[in-house]
Queue: 4 jobs
Job 1
Amino acid sequence: MEKEIVSPNISDPAERPLVFMGGVGYDEQRNRRVAGEIIVATNGYDSVISIPDETPMGPKDGTVVYVHPDGNERELPGKLALKQINDLPSDRFTRLHDRRATELVKAIESSGNEPVDAIFQSVDVSTGILAMHKRPDLFRKVVLLDPSSIISLPSRWQYLKEEWKSGNLRAFISKKNKSANVDRFEESAGIFDKYGRLKRSNQNGNKVATYVSAQASMLHSVAQSEQAPEVSIVASRYDHAYSPVRLLQALVSLDDVATFFITNTRHGLAGKKEKLDQLLSVLESAPDKTADFLDRLHFAGDIAEDYRHRISEAISLRRKSN
């Protein structure tokens, strides 16, 4: 029988809450359920902070906000922004995520237990970065899991060409059958139906944000703030669009993250017990922020040496370019 996830008792100041937001396909109930697994696993958290389900898209929610280097902002409707994906400025986000970031800030303030730890997965990294940008003091340790809101996506043709050349696309095709891998954790998270098929999501606002969000400069601003939280990244070796190499290239500074962990599983957390353990190890670690980035870079044990070498080369090229 599933354990019921109890809403936080905001009158108890001794509570240690955890924020979890899973991205496309995650409503409040599922966020609480997955976070409940994490709470049980760590025994270090005793409540979950979440925000209500995404409401139907409002007239402004799909609007994309562009933040120019001089701080000026402009807006463009989501559909038009998607058509100009390769020409957009570096920092951009949707009004939907800006609104939900404000809701999250209010929820954390209401808990009376800040600063909190948080896990933001996939496109909900956009909500997390915006919330940290608004109130960095509300967060202590944050893990960005398979973040899709930091980099600017390449054109579809360029992306496919790069992935085929690297071997990622062929690896993905060979691993695409998920039905044989549905286990208790996947079922409890509610991501698959009884036939092992991925459930469809109606979170259209999140889907738009997946393609247009790019907030590396905002993340850098958070890292430079006076009350900066400790932000780490867990990225998947087999995450094709948001690969560790692209993430490393997109970061304004390697020092914007405390730990960069590369796992050997695909995008997302559901059903990946090993990845959950890796995530928790990062959340519970105490990295030396002054250490060289290579000392804060970690690999899952089964990642091949040739890929580790590729990551080292990407870091070397980045440092030379700077």
Job 2
Amino acid sequence: MDRPPRSLGLFLRTAREGSRLTLRSVEESTGVSNAYLSQLEHGKIRQPSPVILHKLTELYAVSYSDAMRLAGYPVPEFAGTGTAKPMPKSFSRFGDITPDEESALGEYLDFLRSRRERE
């Protein structure tokens, strides 16, 4: 497994180029200006908002956790493993959720699925 680059800018530039995207095409897809993207990739902006990081990592199909870590944001980890706790993709639209909220959402989803199976 490849380790991510040590800088956010290099990580994002490598991901964009690996996706064969230009700065302008990323701007069209995400709404993030190509000038801002260039500043990110050259290290002039070191801590963009998590929302921008999410848009970019989704488009580039790379790890959001790696991007957050490189930007200096805390990333939840599995207890004692040092590995990032993955957030289910469907939960990303809710933003940060507590473990209790995650549990409640899971229980409700189980309820909905069991109801659907009975029909």
Job 3
Amino acid sequence: MTEPPILGTRGSPLAMAQATLVAAALEAAHGWNQGTVRIIPFTTSGDRIQDRPLAEVGGKALWTKELDRALLDGSTDFSVHSLKDVESVRPEAIGIAAVLERADPRDRIIGAESIDSLKGGAVVGTSSPRRKAQLLALRPDLKIVSLRGNIDTRLGKLATGQMDAIMLAGAGLSRLGRDGVGAPVPIEQMLPAPGQAVIALECRVEDEATAAALGRIDHAETHAAARAERSFTAALGGTCQSPVAALATIADGRVRLRAELLAEDGSMRIQDETEFGLDDSEAAAALARAMLGRAPDAIRKLFEPA
């Protein structure tokens, strides 16, 4: 490509930090001067709607539709997303051209040393149906309340005593320079969301020049893991209010995919895992179908068309 690409992103502090990280990586990979990649921030519907869970008003598409529109009309050349916030079924004209190396995928609890140490009946804030279900599966006594807004807003609600603890993704805190905030929750206790801690770069499928430029910073191992997790969720169907966890790891040229489906209240859960080769494009979807096939009705209904 003859000109550096124009980057579209949400305007939140975390999204801007991630966009800056991507821009710096591209500039280093291509030998461009600092500031060469132009960053255009957008306010998305998900940013504007703060009083309701996203699942009630349109789901993950509220994070992406404004960026998609700018990308498709040529206002931007590529978009930067937190992959866990990108719906598994995307417009055919848009594709993931690259991902950065995955950060720590664990959740963090802030306000307590661990989930086990929470007092009986503690009020815990989270915007995630997955985290809510997992917390209730571990501690049915907890009271889970909806928590929206950027990281500072969420931390502020904790600081003012509106809740006893909150749950956030560790990667987001780290990217904002807050590595010491909160306590990591072990993967064995809370499996993360599909795509958690992965920064994704999307461009128009037909724009081969931009795709090639972005590909210079693609982390192949993370990309393979992300493909497996997204293949799993796509085969499930469902919506962003369906509690799903999945994490793929790569070792010795093979993919290990761990997954979990839960009832909304955490009263039932089904867990499984599989291992397959990097060139196997069907194994993750097959695991999803197998898990749904033996899931109790309270879980299966969450993935059936309305």
Job 4
Amino acid sequence: MTSRKYISAQGRSIDLGALVLKNEHVRAVGNVGVNARGDTLDSLDRPIESQQQKSRKHYEKQTAGNVRNSPVKTKREGK
């Protein structure tokens, strides 16, 4: 991960990259039910579906209607 280091107003150094990696499996604040990585969690904070699986499912849903099983014939081929 990138090294994002910042200096606070009190002069303390904060490494946000390490902070994100440390807390990526912790449930995010809010009512969505995901962790910091975007994985869907159940009531016991166990991952149900990863962010990659959700993205893949969404992509397949978007592209499923665009694929044709038969080739498209033009008017010239019919002559």
